[in-house]
Structure formats: structure tokens, C-alpha cells
Amino acid sequence: MRPSPAKALLEYSASNYSMPEMRGVRKALLISAAASKKRHVDFIRQIWYILDHMKSAIKTKRKEASKAVKPVTFSFDSIALVKRLLASVPPRAREVLTRRFGLGATTTRETLETIGDRAGITRERVRQIEAAGLDAVRASKAFKEAKAAFEELTSYVTSLGTLVPEEALLAALGKDGKSRNRFRFFLMLDSSFYRERETNEFLVRWHVDKGTAKLIHDALSRLYTSLADDEVIPEGELLDRFLDELKEVNDAYKNEEVLKRWLSLSKHIGSNPLSEWGRTSAPGIRIKGIRDYAYLAVKRHGEPMHFSDVAKTIGTLFSKKAHIATTHNELIKDPRFVLVGRGLYALTEWGYKPGVVREVIREALKQEGPMKKDDIIKHVKRARFVKDNTIFVNLNDSRYFKRLKDGRYISV
Questions:
Q1: Domain locations in the chain?
Q2: Which of 51, 63, 91, 225 is deepest in the core (most CB within 10 A)?
């Protein structure tokens, strides 16, 4: 299916012009649409939607790893530092710490039970030895001499927004399992770092400022509450809402990368492949199968699509294999879609209604009373994707409709 002229122009603008210039294109098209009075599946709304999502797509390409953190290089040698710190504790405690944090030959971090079974002692006893070992390291001369290294690490976490998901933080600190284990050990040692356990609302995270962390947690909770159950909004709007909830947080942290990283902490707020956000339980965010990908494909397209084109788009846009027959069946069963032409499906939320053209005409006449031909055409095209001639043929069927002397039509 060939794209509409408006969509083609918008796509060209997105790839060739800056966002201010794209806004100029949007304004021009809106004026043009209003002047011609051409209704094309709510033309104005389509233009806004397509432009907003092109903008989101550009942002996503620019910062596709925004939730992740770029790897960092420190001035100190983490391997040498671990050796110096472990050398300051008794052998038994050193062995327990090595096994607990995966600092030995393997990256496996052993449980208290595993270490206890190996040593023939209880789980509680292992925990006590571990705690004593950490205290011994903190009291050691080696730890005091490593103050600059830990300050460097603290500064880095602060630069990430003070509150960081554990997975993203460790991935940035170490390029492999062994190096990540070393930095986990460092984080556990220094009192500057606080580890928040996973809850029903948030993932595991680290922070270096309790006050700021609480403000962010509270802001995320309020943001979630402000979202309706099925609400799905563009990324820009979600970030604006989040900023409104973060008024008490230092402005130095309020950049897109940090905001998205904070959002990734929440288990209840998420995004879909089109960079739209909402509650993770919302149908438009919780992508489970072909019908959900089909919904996103048609929504992004902005106008009715043939089911075969929907299947192809799912493959190209989301890298998901979608059989044409399977896709067609899902479109038929899902109430979010409505058949508006031969194999053409639109979204119910666009105002399209199911049923043959004759039924749509009868419904329009029932609601509005006798209507002239041009008005009937407008009403039908709001609900169905059909040619004018198809509407004429149905109107001329005397079994269902009658033309009055003044040119208006009524149902028989």
C-alpha cells in the first residue's frame, strides 16, 4: 500500500530536517488540511501522531541505550585494590568474602548455605564471619589508603543521578562477571553507597543520597498514580509529567538520560516499541503477541492497512515473524480492529464502526434524521474506508432507502 501524500511528506521531513523545521511542516499541513476540508481518518490527528512518533523514533535512535550506562574507566586498578583489601583480613574471613562475592577463580557468588555446607558450619555462622570480615576491611590501613578510589566511585554514581538500577550500574562498572563482582564488593564496603532491595514497586538499586533517592521514589509513585489504567502517552509527555513530580530534586540531574534511567526503576511504568509510555498493565504497553504488535503497527501507520501489510510491518518494524493468515485471524478476533474495506483494517478508537455500508448509512440516518447525499458520504467515511461510488450504490437501493423531493434521504 502506498503511503498517503501527507505521511510521505512527514517521513521525508523527519529524515531531512531538524525538529523546528518539522514543526513548520506540521503547521503547513494542518492549514492545508483545514483549507481543503479533506477528512482522511481524522487527518489532523494523524499528522500529530505521526510527527510525534517520528520525533520519538529519532530520540530512540539517538539514545537507544539510555537506560543503560556507558562503560567507565577509573584511575585505580580494581584487581590490585581487591587483593590489598582482602590481604588485611584473617584467612577464614578472606575465604568467605572471596566465595560470597565471586572474587576467586570463578564468578559464582556462593550462598551462605553453600559455604556453610562446605565448611561444616551453620548459615548464621557464615553470615557472622562475612560481617566480621567486611568490618575488618573497613578498619584496615589498605581501606583508608584507598579513600581516593572510593571517592572517585562515589562521584561517578552521583554523575549518573545518585540513584541507579543495580544491573545498569554494574554493567557500566565492569565489562565482565569478574570485574562486576569486584565493584559489587567495593559498593558493599563503603558507607557512601546504599543498596535498596527489590520491592513490589521497584527493582534493586544503589544510591549515594538518601534524601534525593526518597524524592525520586515518591515522584515515581505519584507518576504511576496519575496514569489511568489504559492510558498510553508519547514519551515527551511522560517525561514532562515526571519532571512536574520532581520539583524538589536538584535540576542538575534533570536530563533525558537520567530521567529514563529513573523510570526504569519502576516495575509499574513501562514503554512499548513505539516509545509510548503507561502502566505496564496497560494493553498498549503490555505487548504479549501478534495482535498487540498488529495494534502498534496500524497505529503507527496512521490509516487503515491491509492485513498482509500489517504482517509485513510487524516483521520489519519489530523483527517479529508474523504469518499473514495468523495476523488476519488476530485482527478478526480483536475488538480494537474493525474491517473497513476489502482486507483493510482500522482501529476502533479512530471512530470506525463494524458492519456493511448499508448499516452504517441506516445508523447515520437514525441519529441525524433525513440527510443529503454529501452529508451521508461524510458520515459513512468517518466509519468506513470506502469509495463514494459504493455509498451511491447503497443509497440507490430502494429496498432500504428513499430519496425525498428536497434531495434528502431516509431509511425505508
A1: 5-62, 66-88+140-286, 290-350, 357-411
A2: 51
Query: Which backbone phi and psi does 59 adopt, to 5 degrees?
Result: -60, -40
CA 69/CA 196 separation, integer angstroms: 19
Query: pLDDT tens digits, residue range 27-86?
Result: 444 444 444 443 444 444 445 444 444 444 434 333 443 455 677 889 999 999 999 999
**376/247 Cα distance (integer angstroms):** 52
Closest Cα partner for 55 from 256, 295, 312, 265?
256
Count Cβ atoms below 10 Å from residue 352 Cβ, excluding itself: 22
- What is the rounded distance in angstroms from the CA atom of residue 135 to the CA atom of residue 137? 5
Neighbours of 359 (CB within 10 A): 15
Report which of 367, 368, 355, 345 is spatially closest to residue 394, judged by C-alpha positions. Answer: 355
Q: Are 44 and 30 in contact (CB under 8 A)?
A: yes
In the CATH hierarchy, which top-level class contains the domain 290-350?
mainly alpha
Q: Which three cell numbers stand for residue 145?
A: 589508603
Residues in Cβ contact with 268 at an 8 Å cutoff, skipping those fewer than 6 apart = 201, 224, 279, 280, 281
- In terms of pTM, does the model score above 0.85? no
386, 405 contact by CB (below 8 A): no
